Amino acid sequence: MTIAVALQTLAGADARQEAFVRRAVERLGEAVARPDFVVRIESASYTQTRWAPGKGPWRALTPAEIAARVRSGCERGTEPDGTIDLWLELIDLPPPSGGKQVLGSTALGATPSRTARWFVDLCAERGDALNLAGHLLHEWAHVSGFYHWPDNRARGDTAYVLGRLVREALEDRHGNEIDPEITAMMHDVETDCGCHGEVEGES
Ligand SMILES: [Zn+2]
Q1: In angstroms, what is the span from residue 140 Cα to ligand 1's centroid?
Q2: What is the pTM of this model?
Q3: Tens-digit pLDDT profile for residues 92-147
Q4: H/E/C letters for each residue in 27-69?
Q5: How far apart are the CA of 173 and the centre of ligand 1, in A?
Q6: φ, ψ at 88 (rounded to 5°)
Q7: What are the structural domains of the chain?
Q8: At CB < 8 A and 24+ separation, what contacts does 169-178 make?
Q9: Ligand 1 midpoint to CA 127 (Å)
């Protein structure tokens, strides 16, 4: 069954931002609908894969379990429906400074996914809907219960890998849209996304 993406709500966006976010959502839908997307998730390597259910202790999921969770479209606490539902809010976060960027701030297992307005503006200005699409799945991973540990410098954890796979899945069709500086910002520079796994029972 094909995985779908549905934009449920989008708050805090002006007309231009909304148009570009919708384009990124469309790109995300295109990425996850590809038959090889699940295979990519299953064959990727991860530095850590911590996932916290609503109740009970965290677990490290296997790549196959991560793939199954994405395919199920389960946010934390929703039933499997094969749809990645997005409740999005654009918020004001500090613009990049001194090599530090804050792209988003999503609370673990909770909606909405929060994205920095400056990041949407930058992606729109550069025409890079692929990296924004990757970011949307990264933040969705937090809504679904995945978190960064011990901190968000752990590149290669589930949220970061999922974001990268979205971009890679679309490179052949839309690679011309990718802005290398935004790619570097998302994957090579310290980027604080605000979901560090400050979970009950986690210390
Ligand atoms: Zn994150």
Answers
A1: 9
A2: 0.94
A3: 988 888 777 888 888 899 999 999 999 999 999 999 999 999 999 999 999 999 99
A4: HHHHHHHCCCHHHHHHHCCCCECEECCCCCCCEECCHHHHHHH
A5: 26
A6: -115, 145
A7: 4-192 (3.40.390)
A8: 169/31, 169/32, 169/34, 169/36, 169/37, 169/40, 170/27, 170/30, 170/31, 170/130, 170/133, 171/130, 173/30, 174/27, 174/129, 174/130, 177/127, 177/128, 177/129, 177/130, 178/128, 178/130, 178/131
A9: 22
Q: Which of 53-57, 97-101, 151-155 has the lowest mean pLDDT?
A: 151-155
Q: Residue 148 Cα, ligand 1 centroid: separation in angstroms?
A: 6
Which pair of tokens denotes residue 142?
């937090």
Which tokens go with 97? 């400074």
Ion ligand 1 contact residues with beta carbon within 5 A:
159, 193, 195
CA 41 to chain CA centroid, nearest Å: 13
CA of 147 to the centre of ligand 1 (A): 7
Query: What amino acid occupies position 198?
Result: E
